[in-house]
């Protein structure tokens, strides 16, 4: 996620990316490009080309690729090549299970401990999303704002470590969300869901907050079959 966006809303940047750590900088940018499907499944990543692109030595490139390997976003063939993995459906379901478990509890607690500052921040993020919703060229920014919205909820409970854990497990889930996002109906669903979550938290309605986040997180999962048919070469 864009570190400037995070800092605008008073959130810390994970790892040492904020300090300009070379490995984290390369890792975060490659991850963004993979998640955003700029680097498609089965794309071969040349270390030599990456060193030229990021103007760094082989060492940070190697370490950044190892981080991506831990998330199963790349497969490394020793002494040969590194390839962007295909989207893994079992990993999507695992990440979705984890996300529902964590985010329902986050929303329940926020509703019981409503904080006006958090509600205000969340509404500001949604307004920014609404401002670019109809501009298809801004879908990458729309997704960054979506990530910032959810991270803001975790940060309100001082649980950004859990959000980071969730993020590290959700690479494949994030890719299908990116495939689904360009549909205008999906964009409107996201905006409606975010507003429903905030309204429930603002009203201190725990049950409604939990129902809203569950509904929000289920939308893309139900589209896996359709997306797999539309983009068969993207899936394992």
From TrEMBL:
Source organism, top-level taxon: Bacteria
HTH gntR-type domain segment(s): 20-87
Keyword Flavoprotein: no
Leader sequence segment: none
InterPro entries assigned: GntR_C (IPR011711), Tscrpt_reg_HTH_GntR (IPR000524)
Keywords of this entry: DNA-binding, Transcription, Transcription regulation
Protein name, per record: GntR family transcriptional regulator
